[in-house]
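Ticket #4471: structure output looks truncated?

Reporter: J.K.
Steps to reproduce: submitted the chain below (116 residues) through the standard prediction queue, then opened the result file.
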Amino acid sequence: MKMETDKEFEERVKKESKRSEPYFIAAILAQITGYIIYQYSNFYMLTLLAIPLFMVAIFSSVFLVYHDIKNSPDEIKAEKINENNALLLKIDGWGIYFSTMVMIGYDVIAIFKIIF
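Returned output as attached by the reporter:
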């Protein structure tokens, strides 16, 4: 088995980190759009559009937490190899988990208010 050099390892971690960026963007846009539709729409049919948007935000956030947990040891190891090169904007683990739980809670409550 071929050993990975430090540079190859760092490149692999960067590529894995970039893979989660579309999910982050989707979560933010779906959450904001769903919130605006849910709060300011007077039409029930339009308000129903918020449900799939909230579901997209929930899925994307859960994937981001999974990706953060899965890649955290590799990112820490890569940062120790080259401390001058920031991989991506790194959010504190507890902060991302807490904000994800708050967002999912808000989305679930909003979905049930729309349905019932």
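Triage note (M.O.): checked the attachment and the full token line is present. The radius of gyration is 18 Å.
Status: closed, working as intended.
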